[in-house]
From TrEMBL:
Listed name of the protein: D-isomer specific 2-hydroxyacid dehydrogenase catalytic domain-containing protein
Record-annotated D-isomer specific 2-hydroxyacid dehydrogenase catalytic domain positions: 52-135
Domain of life of the organism encoding this protein: Bacteria
Annotated InterPro entries: D-isomer_2_OHA_DH_cat_dom, D-LDH-like
Amino acid sequence: MTYREPARTAARRSRSPAPASSSAVPTMGITIYECGRDEAVLFRELAPRCGVTPTITDAAVSEANIELAFGNQCISVGHKTHITNATLLALSRAGVRYIATRIIGYNHLDVEYAESVGIFVENVAYSPDSVADYTVR
């Protein structure tokens, strides 16, 4: 399932959005691949605060669904799918310049190849406390 929509503010928001005449944060698009339902809720809730319009899909990134990234310079990926060099090249040609992985490691893609085709890759920070906290919950 794929969702592409302007992010909506959460119902419990305490402040009203900035008026149209103010200098609002510019909107940037991001495609979130391999997005679970729990993550999708958070992306939709937080996106307006960050000036981001998410395109959300539960599908893994591949050459077959690169069109979901068109117009977005950034994508976010999970850890379940190996991202091939062919997919990285297709992402680069689609205009993607940044991949944010929602995991600690990089073993699911070739970072050097990504950089050679103009894509910067970054992962999440590692904290022993966060791993222990996640494991306990």
